[in-house]
Amino acid sequence: MHVMKSMFQRKPPILSLRPEFHSQCSLTNPQVVCNSSSTREEFMMKILDRRWTLKNPDTKVHQINVSRLQTQPTSKLLGNVSFSNNSHPSLGENLTEWHNDQSSFYIVRDDLLHPLVNGNKARKLDALLPLIEDHLGTDVVTCGGCQSAHTAAVAVSCAERGLKAHLLLRGEQPQILTGYNLISMLYGNVTYVPRSVYAKREEMLTSHADSIPGTIIRLDDLLKSSFTNHKSTKSNLDQPSNSKKIVIINEGAGDAIALPGLIRLVKYLSQDHILGKSQPIKIVVDSGTGTTAVGLGIGALCLGLPWEITSVMLADTIEGYRKHEEHLISELCGSSGFPIIMHSGLVHWVEREHPRKFGNVLKGEIEACQQIAKETGVLVDPIYTLAAWELASQLSQQEKKGGAKVVMLHTGGTLGMFGLAQRYKSYF
Ligand SMILES: Cc1ncc(COP(=O)(O)O)c(C=O)c1O
Predict the structure, then answer these.
(1) Number of separate domains in the chain
(2) From ligand 1's centre to the CA of 252, what distance in Å?
(3) β-strand partners of 284
(4) What are 261-307's pLDDT values in tens digits?
(5) Residue 149 beta carbon below 6 angstroms from any ligand 1 atom
(6) Can you give the pTM of this predicted structure?
(7) CATH code where residue 285 lies
(8) Structural domain that includes position 60
(9) Could you tell me if 227 and 265 lie in one domain?
(10) Ligand 1 centre and the CA of 411: distance in Å?
């Protein structure tokens, strides 16, 4: 309850600029607040002017109706509600209409983008992969847990482009490979790393990249170059063409270069025939590193949308998320040569109602996923997307007629279920 209350007390995010760079803003105060929409648009255009992986940013939007049941609670986690899915809802202007006074929320079906590279993985790699190609990258090094959807997405995407993916997976190789672990093995080059070594991720990634003969291309250099000569491969012409070029991607692609794909998604969703620009909207998303939520927050801010990004914290503390948010903002702004200081506070970070150690599954969670799958045809997983579904469902029941619409972003990750079925046999 406490969490919910504070969610609505959030101050609108502000955009401030260093005055020496922008004459539109007051020159007297060194931390001037500037809400100039032209400045935001300019920044946005600069970010979106690039080559993308996804041919277009389109995605499906479904509507989930939430009906209260008069019976005993069907699920401890979801309450006594049932769900149904309208896969062809009226969007655009009709979004503001309420039908039968029934609670509902919308769900952005990014889980349908690709059989293996979907959800936020597809968005995070949207800007990144073309940059690697433009700079003639040959190898990618990244890491994740044994069932990491991110490492699997990187492996598949690299294989599709003729790049070599080196995947450092935490822990020991399981006896039977399944889910994302199996995909990582089929498409990439997997090395299992003892947990004590994995604990120092940066060191581990760098030393693995160092072990591959060739030149390491830094991701922040790629990001910077994307704002200058991103369509050219000039920076590589003076290097021998047969030398390997290795790119390191952080765990979960928690890098600033993951943000443009999410900003592109916000722009797509804000079109008049989809969610529009004037309807207050609460976007709900689940967070691991928090990068997805920050990308959505930057997009909403730059477009001046009355959208609130609410993120359920699943893998870190609020301090950790705020720090990461600040870091991503400063890296994106710094690299773009557009020294905007967006104060952190773009994302409303909230605790899950039933907190648990990251990666664990609580009793009743599989049943909740099962109920959702059976009633709506949407598969969520207990590690990530169930948490966003729970919150979207709660918020949709609290929203008053004419209030903000609730929109959940499906971040994908559904193959994770296979790994969980192996690990938590008694729950299935
Ligand atoms: C299904 C799913 N949802 C959410 C996340 C977390 O996204 P982020 O790290 O951007 O918060 C991940 C991890 O990449 C994921 O696999």
Answers:
(1) 2
(2) 7
(3) 310, 408
(4) 999 999 999 999 999 999 999 999 999 999 999 999 999 999 999 99
(5) yes
(6) 0.89
(7) 3.40.50.1100
(8) 2-115+258-427
(9) no
(10) 6
